[in-house]
Amino acid sequence: MADRAKSSARRRAWRPRPPCGPCGPRSRRGGALFDDAGTALLGCVYIDPARKVGFDAEISWWVVDDRVGTALEHALDALVPRWITYEWPFERPCFVGRDLSWQEWLALPDAA
């Protein structure tokens, strides 16, 4: 029962953001992760149209400095790729900073 309550609190703490700009396949999506009280920002996830050749989306996420290396960061590192794979229609997402370093990503040719 306690696990179910914790899971429910985690779902409530996740707040998807509306897209930036016009809604559609080329607009940014994202969400913010808050503490259980909904008052402290703990991290964010960004889903953007790919700006580089060879990918159809660029996915990135972060946690606040005091959560780096914690179970929260490790949970996001496991959850986000699974969530994107099973819930989003991308064929070639790039998990920037994970699949490729930021330097490698920036060195790729820009998409047309």
Helix content: 25-40%
- Large-scale geometry: globular
Order of helices and strands: HEEEEHEH
The mean pLDDT is 80
Output the radius of gyration. Answer: 15 Å
Number of strands: 5
Unreliable stretches, pLDDT < 50, 5 or more residues? 1-25
Largest sheet: 5 strands, mixed
Output the structural class: alpha+beta
Spatial sequence of strands, sheet with the most strands: 1-2-3-4-5
Alpha plus pi helix count = 3
Alpha-carbon distance between the termini? 51 Å
Q: Give the amount of beta strand, in percent.
A: 25-35%
Structure description:
This protein is an alpha+beta fold and 112 residues long. It is built from three helices and five strands. Strands 1-2-3-4-5 form a five-stranded mixed β-sheet. A hairpin with a 7-residue loop joins β1 and β2. The chain starts with a helix and ends in a 5-residue tail after the last helix. The N terminus is likely disordered.
Secondary-structure topology with pairs:
Elements: H1 2-13, E1 14-20, E2 28-34, E3 41-49, E4 57-63, H2 71-87, E5 93-95, H3 102-107
Parallel strand pairs: 4-5
Antiparallel strand pairs: 1-2, 2-3, 3-4
